[in-house]
Specification:
It contains eleven helices and 15 strands. It is an alpha/beta fold. The termini are far apart.
Length: 365
């Protein structure tokens, strides 16, 4: 049986790396597109890139950019894949307020560029296309649980750019009979999450504080509520969407909700101590109230979490909770990771990083 061929944009990111692993296990030939960067950004896929058994046989990397239709067309025309997963994006909500034009060019027009190439190749091959959508589309929708029929109300340049991507994907599906789907994924995290995202920032810095490497975690809105899952599981749902006979859009969510404050408290507990809160609004802070692990480099009453106005968004979404009944029925979606298992996975990796740095410092003394 002939190997299926897939192209993944954004392969160096969290989702791209998990998806590449999954597809390789399923005997795909995987081509990843990455941007040219002045710094090395392949840490999440180095274990694949260094594997001589698959490199050059089943796993390939290409330089390309969603801003450059010529590079995209050249790669797609040459490979003629069975599936394309568009995971590349400027995906940070706060940064999108600082860089709205760039965010829109990458996220919105980048999707359109790929769809145009697929449309023009439809006489040669029917390429299946997955577009990474986002729960940020829902914004401040009045509906408590959001599903595929919930009206969108984006509240950031990031969400607005992704709204264009959503509708243009749907439009090309209906206008040109292309196999195009939107995966509306709620927040999904992992040890591979970027350090500028709140969940990874929490697990990374708190493990460093507990090892005496940092003094405090500066945070924004403690009360923002999110539906958090594990990226590894969500990547599998991307693949499952492209295996259906009929292209459809799906919401993927755990249907459980926690605040940033909850996430911090659960992370502290996983590390080995308890946190309590004092003060109000911008003067609120978190301090160590109990220590369960005597080896931690922290003290009772130590102030470790503080509010910093700089981390608040100009227009924040307070409450996001998904409803994934359709995915449960048609994709057999059932999350195995709850919030505690997710945090445990993230803390485990960040502990190793912190402990390695401590050992390195001792060795250099």
């Amino acid at each position: 049986m002939k190997n299926k061929i897939a192209i993944i944009t954004g392969i160096t990111g969290q989702d791209g790396s998990y998806l590449a692993e999954l597809l390789l296990k399923k005997n795909y030939i995987v081509h990843g597109i990455r941007r040219r960067s002045s710094s090395i950004n392949t840490s999440r896929i180095d274990h694949l890139h260094d594997n001589k058994k698959i490199l050059g046989k089943k796993f390939f990397l290409h330089y390309g950019d969603l801003l450059d239709s010529i590079s995209l067309e050249k790669i797609i025309n040459k490979i003629l894949p069975d599936e394309i997963y568009n995971l590349a994006a400027q995906s940070h909500v706060k940064i999108s307020f600082d860089m709205p034009e760039y965010t829109s060019n990458v996220n919105a027009l980048g999707t359109l560029r790929i769809l145009e190439i697929i449309k023009n190749l439809s006489n040669k091959k029917r390429i299946k296309f997955y577009q990474a959508s986002t729960s940020e589309l829902f914004g401040d929708s009045v509906h408590k649980k959001k599903d595929e029929n919930t009206p969108f109300f984006p509240k950031s340049p990031y969400a607005t750019s992704k709204l264009f991507s959503y509708w243009i994907t749907k439009n090309y599906r209906e206008s040109y009979n292309l196999y195009c789907v939107n995966g509306i994924l709620f927040n999904h995290e992992s040890p591979r999450r970027g350090l500028n995202f709140v969940t990874r920032k929490i697990t990374y810095i708190l493990t460093r504080i507990s090892n005496g490497l940092e003094n405090k975690l500066e945070i924004g809105n403690l009360n923002a509520k999110r539906d958090w899952g594990h990226a590894k599981e969500y990547s599998e749902m991307m693949w499952k969407m492209l295996q259906l006979k009929k292209p459809e859009d799906f919401v993927i969510a755990t249907e459980k909700q926690f605040s940033v404050r909850n996430f911090i408290e659960l992370t502290c507990k996983e590390i080995g101590f308890q946190i309590k809160w004092k003060g109000k609004n911008l003067d609120e802070y978190g301090y160590v109230s109990r220590i369960f692990d005597e080896n931690l480099k922290i003290k009772i009453n130590q102030k470790i979490v503080v509010i910093n106005k700089r981390f608040f968004r100009p227009n924040d979404v307070e409450d996001l909770l998904g409803k994934s009944i359709k995915a449960r029925k048609k994709l057999n979606w059932k999350p195995k990771y709850n919030i505690k298992k997710l945090i445990k996975d993230m803390v485990k990796e960040d502990k190793l990083l912190a402990e390695y740095e401590v050992l390195k410092k001792k060795a250099n003394k």
